[in-house]
Amino acid sequence: ETSSTTLAFALYELALQTKLQERLRQEIEATIKKHNNEFTYECMEDMHYMKQVLAETQCKYPIAPNLMRQAAADYVVPGHPNYVIKKGMMVTIPTIGIHYDPATYPEPDKFDPERLSADALRLRDSVDWL
């Protein structure tokens, strides 16, 4: 169910932006040709733009809008010493709040696979994409 939901949203976004759709189609055709016209695991791993499209889809339409985590140790909230997350306390992490933060992802409503390119990922904290 989660895979089909992600693929449905990816296809929806690609239908809205035919230039992205064409770029992905060209990558798929070129990569399959490079792998002797065989669609294998290695072939799929070579589709870097495909990974970006799927990652951006998951960023814009997260399957889990919130993540529940348990604090491993006491944590004093920076700048607020009276607020302490006690060890063992359950914490809700708002996935969609992080993914839609314009400080991290400019124009968060825009579908832009380039924001998840290898170069862009190196400039961002690894916890900014859940």
Automatic annotation (TrEMBL):
Q: Which cofactor does it need?
A: heme
Which one Pfam family would you cite for this protein? p450
Q: Tell me which InterPro entries the record gives.
A: Cyt_P450 (IPR001128), Cyt_P450_sf (IPR036396), Insect_CytP450_Detox (IPR050476)
Q: Which Gene3D superfamilies match?
A: Cytochrome P450
Q: Name one GO cellular component term.
A: endoplasmic reticulum membrane
* Protein topology in the membrane: Peripheral membrane protein
What keywords would UniProt list here? Endoplasmic reticulum, Heme, Iron, Membrane, Metal-binding, Microsome, Monooxygenase, Oxidoreductase
**Main localization of the protein described in the UniProt heading:** endoplasmic reticulum
Mention one GO molecular function: oxidoreductase activity, acting on paired donors, with incorporation or reduction of molecular oxygen
- What's the superkingdom here? Eukaryota
Q: From the Swiss-Prot or TrEMBL record, state where the protein is found.
A: Endoplasmic reticulum membrane; Microsome membrane
Q: Which family does it belong to?
A: Belongs to the cytochrome P450 family.
What is this protein identified as? Cytochrome P450 monooxygenase
Q: Which organism is it from?
A: Ceratitis capitata
